[in-house]
Amino acid sequence: MDGNLVLVVNSGSSSIKYQLVDPASGAVEAAGLVERIGEAGGAIEHRTDGRTVSEQVSIPDHTAGLRLAFAKFAETGHDLTAAGVTAVGHRVVHGGEVFYRPTLVDAGVLAAIEDLSALAPLHNPANVRGIEAVCTLLPNVPQVAVFDTAFFHGLPDAAKTYAIDAKVAETHGIRRYGFHGTSHEYVSGRVAEFLGRPAGSLNQIVFHLGNGASVSALRGGRPVDTSMGLTPLEGLVMGTRSGDLDPGIILHLMRTAHLDVNGVDRLLNRGSGLRGMAGVNDFRELRRLIGEGDDNARLAYDVYVHRLRRYLGAYLIELGGVDAITFTAGVGENNPDVRADALAGLSRFGIAVDPDRNTAKDRSARRISPLDAEVEVLVVPTNEELAIARAAAAVTATV
Ligand code: AMP
Predict the structure, then answer these.
(1) Which of 203, 230, 266, 325 is the most exposed place for a label (fewest CB within 10 A)?
(2) In this predicted structure, what is the pLDDT of residue 375?
(3) What's the number of domains the chain is made of?
(4) Which of 112, 147, 182 is the last residue of a domain?
(5) Of all protein residues, whose CA lies closest to atom 14 belonging to ligand 1?
(6) How far apart are CA 44 and CA 358, in angstroms?
(7) Domain of residue 307, residue span
(8) CB-hemisphere CA count at 13 Å for 233?
(9) Using alpha carbons only, what angle is made at residue 322 by residues 321 and 326, rounded to the nearest 5 degrees?
(10) Do residue 87 and residue 222 come from a single domain?
(11) DSSP-derived secondary structure letter, 102
């Protein structure tokens, strides 16, 4: 096995996604998903060399899940415990005010990530479990935490501050942190490469539209605004999350529907967005329902697009003009209707989508605006795993 590979681990509360990546070439040696950790019906799916092996097995905790993954690596010719993995890169959701660059993990860093759990109760504890499990299995390999919030650390004060009591905000760490930072950073960098222009010379708007969705505005390569806030709940309409709403709705529901904190959490994080409005969170399902004439699905789509346009307008004005608008992630990369509808009727702002380019079956980074349009409209596949692998390799190279 080549000696310069990075294992990338994205550990959720009941699942672990992983990839073994060559950070230089971007080649993926193997990848997999461990699901339903600590629940009935545990399973692993491991892919390497074009082959997929699956197994259904009880997986009590994250260490057992990673042990299983390591066994699959060994069975398929990649012994991770032998020399070859130079670093492990972990996706960590919330870095708070503390972490704003990829960080080599030690006991203090691990404790600090755990301490930030109040800001990300669903994510940070799971990230910590994943790091602990890998530390046990690969004790001599450096572990690097790569934070989803880090890219947005330097947001301007006016963009990151909520208009609430300043003391309350300070005491409780309430500010806009932003998420999907690894993707926004990677994609905006690829845009500059694609256009052959320095990132520092470009104003960009990047729509990351997956099951979670966010949009960022960048001036000269640095973010000046982003739609997610204290948590990944704010902003665009998502698969199961509401995005923006009047905070008075929460008070109203607590008073009239007697929802407690868990009820509100469930409603807004899991039972809202496309699923709440149309009963499905997957965009392909939504399109199918619209095709069948389902009015709720149509309305959900219209709300989704309306929210995209509202942010687009705000960010155009904030930037004072834009050089490139880019779509990425599952919906952004694969759904031409969303791209066309989000940017419809904006030719007076130099923004247009060429219908043939927009619907072309092409999975690479590409331009979908007419060649003579003032604003470049692009589709750029995101690759958070590669970005994490590169960040981890860069940190360990300096140790
Ligand atoms: P992500 O979170 O980036 O994996 O994106 C998940 C979302 O992308 C889901 O709503 C999917 O329905 C959507 N998606 C993924 N692949 C496609 C595709 N080929 N066509 C349309 N939507 C897709």
Answers:
(1) 266
(2) 98
(3) 2
(4) 147
(5) 330
(6) 36
(7) 197-384
(8) 20
(9) 155
(10) no
(11) -
Catalytic residue among 61, 115, 148, 225: 148
According to DSSP H, which parts of the chain are helical? 62-75, 107-115, 124-137, 157-160, 166-172, 181-195, 248-256, 261-270, 273-278, 283-291, 295-319, 329-334, 336-342, 355-359, 384-397
Specify whether 370 is located in the same domain as 223: yes
The verdict on residue 82 lying in a domain is yes
120: closest CA among 269, 7, 244, 329? 269
CA separation for the pair 301, 284 (Å, rounded): 12
Q: Let me know whether 259 and 372 are in one domain.
A: yes
What single-letter DSSP state applies at residue 214?
E
Q: Indicate the top mutation candidate among 335, 359, 379, 384 to test ligand 1's pocket, ranked by most ligand atoms within 8 A of CB.
A: 335
- pLDDT mean across residues, the chain: 95
Q: What is the CATH number of the domain that holds 93?
A: 3.30.420.40
User: Residue 196 C-alpha to ligand 1 middle, in angstroms?
Assistant: 29
The per-residue pLDDT for range 87-115, each reduced to its tens digit, is: 999 999 999 999 999 999 999 999 999 99
- Structure confidence at residue 2 as a pLDDT band (50, 70, 90): low
Examine the residue annotation and report whether 79 is marked as an active-site residue of this protein.
no
Residue 169 lies in a domain: no
SS3 52: strand
Judged against a pLDDT cut of 80, whether residue 399 lies above it is answered with no
* CA distances from residue 163 to 14, 158, 184, 313 in whole angstroms, order as listed: 35, 10, 26, 21
Indicate which atom in ligand 1 lies nearest the CA of residue 332.
8
Instruction: Please check whether residue 175 lies inside any domain of the structure.
Output: no
Indicate whether 126 and 265 sit together in one domain: no
